[in-house]
Structure formats: C-alpha cells, structure tokens
Hints:
Blueprint: H1 6-17, E1 21-24, E2 30-33, E3 47-51, E4 56-59, H2 75-78, E5 85-88, E6 93-97, H3 116-119
Antiparallel strand pairs: 1-2, 3-6, 4-5
Amino acid sequence: MLPLRPAALVTLLRAAGSGGGLRRHPAGVWHVSSAPPQPVIAAKEPFPVELKAGKKYAWCGCGHSKSQPFCDGTHKKAAPGISPVRFTAEKDTTAWLCGCKRTRSPPYCDGTHKGEAVQSARLPTQP
Ligand code: FES
C-alpha cells in the first residue's frame, strides 16, 4: 500500500464530502473525482404507472434499480450519493415517471428524454 501525503488525504476527504469520491478507472487506476455521481439512463422514455391516493413511493434516481421506475435499494452500492425521490400520490391517477433520470422535475417526465443526449445514449443493458 502506498503511503498518502497529508495533502492527498485532504483531497480525498474533500472529494468524498462533496458527493464525489474514489473512482476506479477502466485501466485499473484509482483516481479522485470531485464530480457528483451521475445517474444512468434506465430507459429512453417515461414509465406510465398507476398511482394510488395516499400511497408512498420511492422513484429511482440513479437508474440502476431493477424495479424501474421505483427504487430497489441498488443505489446504496451502485451509486452512493444518489438518493431516490420519495413522494406521496395526492390522488388516484396515471403518472408518467421519468425513465431517463434526466428530468428537471423528478419524479415526473418533463420531456428531456426527447433530446439527443438521451436518444443517442447507449443503455447499460445494450451490448
Ligand atoms: S423519461 Fe426522463 S424526461 Fe421523460
């Protein structure tokens, strides 16, 4: 194990406290990122879901959940720093919940998925 100089340790702690942290580069080298973790695109379109009045929901904000569009707890390991959006339905309704995880009004779709950045992106499940 390599010894850490105090300045390097301060950098690591600041990165961890800002939502960034240690990231493993594909080449196998560890590096520090100060950028907050970014969600992955779970789908390129919203999910229509039937919401029940008074029921509590947790919308997946990281994109890693296998229970889209809802949280299954995967963010704890796959995307620490990204939390689900918890909300209570005010009435029985069909809602379009964001699947691209880029909406500016989570958990609801705002049309951001129609943009080139989402439509041209490769989904994690695509080869
Ligand atoms: S699915 Fe994300 S903005 Fe529409």
